[in-house]
């Protein structure tokens, strides 16, 4: 057995359709973070794994956030799925391990998510690599 | 976006936990964690991802990721010696029985687990020799993890021995060179089931015996695996121990009551309670307070971190919280007695706290703590028939 999904049991009940009311407060927090990004340029991250979500809360939040124009996948230590929401500058970043199981779910309020930017040292390494390629040619 | 090292072993977030003792460290300086990860082909984005997952693991906000990255870049892997005494191995099972490799395993793989007699291949004198070598090689620097309570110095040591060494002697010998002690599970932290009345083996908690070293209690029966590794990650990352509550538990994980982080809390505030396990309220997901939920007096991270890779947790499954991370929870009366019902007199005291709203939540918690003490003194046995009548 490699995952919970392999257990041949399906839960049937009303729990997943209930609204426990935890999605809207997060959307309100996103709104404040977006306003701060506009005013000061300060980005923000929200760890959804730290939220006391009940069944259906995460799905409700995702419905509220919607989908935007950009999706990206970063392949490093397993994949990371990045999706723009219907609100520009609000990104869903889902960290997965090698078995495609989630190890983290963040909202990033930024112009470009941190994982998509070159990391410190990447540009210098790239410059050195191009120089080496030119020297070989 | 392609990985810069697609063929590297770093393609996996977490290699499987090694189920054998690792070779003892050599005297030369260990490479830093950053160096280890780079040698394994982990890209800078991969390192950033590792740091983001570590922040989640330590219950720190994502804004701390750059600080975590800077600290982990130069961190050296600590040596860990793990002693198991009067325990059921549930704590080790919690730690190792993840559904698949997770970031917890990666944290574990970056520590040097030099002695753990459940997991290591060596046994008997060879295992004890490995423990002594690890202690000598890392004198004053290793973390000592203990699960299980142990017979106190005045108890019959024969109740629990390892390789002919009493638990008490082994603990006091091993703790001398430790930098800190992490008591994993309610048994090690507070005595747990072995200490429950009538405590036949004279069991005591680690903190009852260790007075000259920092003791961190990671309680729970068992504790959340992420909390166990989160404490180790804290030490690995920042080289210091986390801030603790009055019971020496890390505030990052035990700082808030289950009740205050429960997704069913709004129903408590509205006075909407399940009265039995299959009534309308239970099906609608209402508060389980009247079914014995100890959430108002229980401090743990289950409500957010959840179990089984975040699949669910007891309250989400419809079961009241037992308060397993609290001292003496085994002697706290019936698991299905509501907090405001006096022990031994179920049904005679009516519940009003929920209807009065959230302000009484804290009072219910305090009441619950008093109830634990009262129940411990009274220790009234409950038969299966009585339990069924209550339900």
Q: Can you characterise this structure?
A:
The complex is a heterodimer of chains A (137) and B (391). In chain A, 31% of the residues lie in helices and 22% in strands. Chain A is an alpha+beta fold and 137 residues long. Chain A has one domain: HupH hydrogenase expression protein, C-terminal domain (Ribosomal Protein S8, Chain: A, domain 1), CATH 3.30.1370.140. Chain A has a 5-stranded antiparallel beta sheet. In chain A, a hairpin with a 5-residue loop joins β4 and β5. The N and C termini of chain A lie far apart (51 Å). Chain B is built from 18 helices and 9 strands. Helices cover 37% and strands 9% of the residues of chain B. Chain B has 3 domains: 46 residues, no CATH class; 178 residues, NADH:ubiquinone oxidoreductase-like, 20kDa subunit (Rossmann fold, 3-Layer(aba) Sandwich), CATH 3.40.50; 133 residues, Cytochrome-c3 Hydrogenase, Chain A, domain 2. Chain B is of the alpha/beta class. At the A-B interface, β1, β2 and β5 of A face α2 and α15 of B.
